């Protein structure tokens, strides 16, 4: 107790701390003002009549992604992937959609990555797409299955040289010693990818999320958002409107 009081009563402790606290408060206030001043959907948004939606979600998803691309959304095939570990602790990251077909939504990674390890113990996931230029979101959730090694290899080798080089570097989610170590590994991987375009990457795995629920969200400037939710039950898709 005496040490604590002595520290509080020190003539140097309080003046030294006060300006720093003031600066922290000012920074926090400036940040809050920045957030509150950011505008959302200051452009004309498309309308969406859920009565015209197809019986299944896949055609509508393909249509919305195509329209997002036509509206100038950069990288409209990027998505958020959420997984959870054995204890139920969630993690999230952004990656690319590789396909969406009757089997489900396709993405890929190394088996030893964090998402690969989590999917091995909890083979369920959720995806999120956001296309701000058209005020649209799509959420997809369901069980995840692993494609075979041949299909996984074909997925990788249909992609760019850069994608192959990144896969050849490997060791995703492991602790990195230095940026120089990454630079050396990347340079070697790029050389191999250019000279050996069919180079195998055994850890590369294609995953397929089979949707059980797909929600389509159309934003509205007056906040009368349209939310159409598909659920797969008893062998067929059902639809519900949701309150925004």
UniProtKB/TrEMBL annotation:
Xref: NCBIfam families: PRK05679.1
Family of the protein in this entry: Belongs to the pyridoxamine 5'-phosphate oxidase family.
Protein species of origin: Streptomyces glebosus
Compositional bias per record (Basic and acidic residues), positions renumbered to this chain: 1-12
Region (Disordered): 1-24
Domain Pyridoxine 5'-phosphate oxidase dimerisation C-terminal: 204-244
Cofactor(s) annotated in UniProt: FMN
BP terms from Gene Ontology: pyridoxine biosynthetic process
Listed Pfam families: PNP_phzG_C (PF10590), PNPOx_N (PF01243)
Domain of life according to the entry: Bacteria
Record-linked PANTHER family: PYRIDOXINE-5'-PHOSPHATE OXIDASE, PYRIDOXINE-5-PHOSPHATE OXIDASE
GO MF, any single term: pyridoxamine phosphate oxidase activity
Protein keywords: Flavoprotein, FMN, Oxidoreductase
Pyridoxamine 5'-phosphate oxidase N-terminal domain mapped to chain residues: 66-187
Protein's name in the database: Oxidase
């Amino acid at each position: 107790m005496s040490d604590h009081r002595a520290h509080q009563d020190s003539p140097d402790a309080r003046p030294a701390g006060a300006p720093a606290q003031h600066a922290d408060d000012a920074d926090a206030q400036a940040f809050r003002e920045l957030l509150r001043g950011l505008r959302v959907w200051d452009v004309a948004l498309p309308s969406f009549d859920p009565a015209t939606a197809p019986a299944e979600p896949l055609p509508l998803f393909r249509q919305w992604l195509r329209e997002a691309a036509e509206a100038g959304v950069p990288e409209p095939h990027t998505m958020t992937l959420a997984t959870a570990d054995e204890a139920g602790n969630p993690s999230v990251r952004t990656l690319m959609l590789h396909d969406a077909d009757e089997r489900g939504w396709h993405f890929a990674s190394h088996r030893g990555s964090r998402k690969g390890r989590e999917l091995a113990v909890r083979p369920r996931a959720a995806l999120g797409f956001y296309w701000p230029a058209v005020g649209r979101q799509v959420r997809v959730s369901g069980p995840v299955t692993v494609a075979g090694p041949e299909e996984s290899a074909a997925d990788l080798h249909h992609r760019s040289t850069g994608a192959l080089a990144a896969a050849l570097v490997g060791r995703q989610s492991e602790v990195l010693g230095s940026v120089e170590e990454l630079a050396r590994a990347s340079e070697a991987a790029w050389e191999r990818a250019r000279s050996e375009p069919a180079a195998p990457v055994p850890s590369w795995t294609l995953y397929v999320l089979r949707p059980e629920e797909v929600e389509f969200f159309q934003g509205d400037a007056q906040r009368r958002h349209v939310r159409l939710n598909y659920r797969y039950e008893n062998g067929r898709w059902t639809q519900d409107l949701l309150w925004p």
